[in-house]
Structures are given as structure tokens and as C-alpha cells.
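Researcher: I'm preparing a figure for a lab meeting and need a structural model of a single chain. I don't have an experimental structure, so a prediction will have to do for now. The sequence is pasted below. Please return the structure as C-alpha cells so I can convert it later.
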Amino acid sequence: MNKLIKFSVYTVLVFLTSCGAFFNQPIKISKARIGESTSRKSILDTILPATETVVGVYKFRDHTGQYKLVENGSTFSTAVTQGGTSILLKSLEESKWFTPIERENIGNLLNERQIIRSTRQEYAADAKQDQTTSIPPLLFAGIILEGGVVSYDSNIITGGSGARYFGVGASTEYRQDRITIYLRAVSTSSGRILKNVYVSKTILSQGISANLFRYVDVKRLLEVETGVTKNEPTQLAIKEAIDKAVELLIIEGVIDGLWVPKGGDKIIEYLKSEYNKEKEEAASTALLDREFDDRRGRIAIGAYGSSSHISGDYSNPVGKMGGGVKSKLFLKNPALSLSSNLGYFELENEDSFKKKFLNLDVNLDYTILPYDNFSPYIYGGIGSITNNRDLKDMLLKFQYGLGIEYLPSNKFGLYLFGEQNLMFNDKIDDVVQGKRNDYYWKIGAGINFYFGKPYNRAKKVLFE
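Model: Understood. Here is the structure written out cell by cell.
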């Protein structure tokens, strides 16, 4: 019965770990359907032009020459679609700001028009009728669009994690690629480049797996394995990047007076405002979608709870709860700050030692990622402790530690920390014995509230 229960538990664990794979397995042939739409929302969704502009696209090329990565051997399949022109024409049509005309296969169009003209001439001669052989003239483009996919960067970031316990394990892996495109508008009357825009888009691949390897009996081995891999389609990523490039081309063109929207100056001011917001966001975003922002105010006040463990001359230490208040002052470098904390804690060894203490510490803190909302930090400094309310018999110490802070907003942060406190003497437990001084560990969690304006250094650091 126990073996059956264990088997059932292991099976349920594996199933729950990899339920996404079970619920998304393709078990039947799919029908053709309308192509997927990207999830991108445009500023121009409800804004139309006063008049559409006729544009021509001869070729939107893949300039990368990149081939698909494979683990073994080689492949002649390209990493980037060769149909960029078709995607760009579709984006221009969907924007409702342009009238795209055929130029990629202009030779085919001219040949067909010649066939039409010749057929009409022959028909008119045979029927001896006075019929015109002319056909409407082709539209000409006042603007042609040029550009292409200029880079495809593979594996700009890779990673994963996993765990295994008693034969039950699960793991996850991820990889991120990046494409970059340029799009420019060129005047056919003067050859002048009217506008040039640049857009990049990441492509994410993820894999999740779970497995079970367990002896359910002396002669019976259970092995279970499942997994799922999800790859963002490159074609949809390129479509989204091209859509964004067309949007930028329109907005920057409206701001520069190249095209006019319906609604006049109010719409232009609205587009300027939204575009400036997006530019500021882009300016404070680094590679890998890391947002650089001056998050923390110059002053922080908070509180924490902790558990302390002594390592002294007695055995069997017991963890005891404590707490305190903390203040922090940031220096001109936003990664550095001076902090102080006043706390209360207890130290205890089972059946041998127990005391209550007050501590006063001063530290220099270094925040490793000061512009991110999730950052590790390290600190070190000096302090003192006493077990007397009148603050007599102060014992000096040195402390250092590390922690992790998460900011749900720029006004407050939640943090975890762990530190070691090294005493300058061996008197903390009232016993002087051995060559090493006493010390104690402290782990805890707390909250910081930030006040005042930050130093506004994020963008300067980003572009240095």
C-alpha cells in the first residue's frame, strides 16, 4: 500500500509539473486559418491621414546572411524570412496611411500590360471595330521605401534552472535572439532621404521538462519524462518590428510635416506627447529590456524583523526573534548609501546561556543594480551591542552581509538579508575560552520607505 501511495504521489507531481505539455500537445491535424495577428497596439489605431500617400517598395532585403542554428551539422535554411517585402506591403496597407503599389515584380506587371495591349489591338483588327487599345496609366510613387533586416543576433542571453530530489526533477531553459531593421523614406523627385527609423525586437525560446527516475520495488524501475518547448515565430517577430517601423515613420513624418492627419493641430500635439513618452521610455531601457530609472529617493526609513544565532563557547545555539528600525541616506552615487539601524535581539544556547541585547550599527551599503526594481546589495560597517538599558558595557563589533531588495513601486521596497557579526572580544556569552572571538548570525526581512527626489543619474549612466 505504501508503495502504491508513493507511486501515485510521484505520478501526480510529474503531471502537475508538466501539465502545460499535456494540455497543449497537438493530437490532430490543424486546418488552414487566417494568419495570426501580432499583440502590438499602435498609437495610430484611431488616427487617419487627410490623404493617403502613394509609396513603392522595390525590395525589403535580409542583409544578415544568417542561417539557422542547429546543434549538429549544417543547414541552408535562413534564420530570417526572405519575404520581407510582402510583410512590409501588408503593414503599409494595414496602417491606412499609404497606398502601396507594385514594384518588386514590376517586370511581370509590365509584361501583362503589354499582353493586354496586344490582345486589344488584335481583337480590334479582327472585328474591324474602332476600339481603343489604351489602358489606364500606372500610378507613380512620390516616395519609395527602402531598408531591410540588418542584423540577427543569436543567443544574446541564455540560461535556465532545475532541481532534482529523490529521483524527481524538473528544469527550464530559455534563449533570446534579437533582430534589427531599418526603414527609410526616399523622395523620388529629389532623392532626399525624408525619414529613417530603426527598430529592434527580441525573439524568445523556452523549454520546460520534468522527469521521474525511481525504484518502486527491488526489481521494478519507474521512469517518466515529459517536456515542452515553445519558440516565438520569427516571422511574427519580424512582422511586429516592421509594424513598429511603419508606425514610427508615420509619427515622425507627421511631426516633421511630411504628412497631415485628420484632426489638425490637436492630433499632432497628441502624437508628439505620446511619442516623447515612448522616446523617454526607450532612452531609459537598455539591452535585454532592462529599464533604467532613478527609483530610490535620497532618504529611506524602515523596519525589519530578524532571527539571531550565536556561535560562541557554548553548544546547541537556539534561534531567537528580534527586530529594529533602519534609516538610509544615499550619496551622490546612487549605488552607495550610509545606513544605520537600532535593533533588539536575543542570543541563546540551550540550557546554558540566554541574554537580550540592543545593537546600534553604521554601514556602508552598495546596491549592485541601483536602476532596477530588483537588486542584490552588500554592506559592511561597525557597531556595538549592550545588554544594559543604561547602555553601559558596550561591546564593539564588525558586521557585513548581503541582501536582495524588490521595489513594487519607487516609494517602498521589500528586502531579505543575512549578516555575520564579528565581535572584537570573547565576552558576549560571559565565557572567555579558546582562541577565537564570539560571533553571531542574523537573518531577516524588512521594508524600506523612500522619501525625496533621486539624483537623476540613470540616463547619464546609460549613455556614458
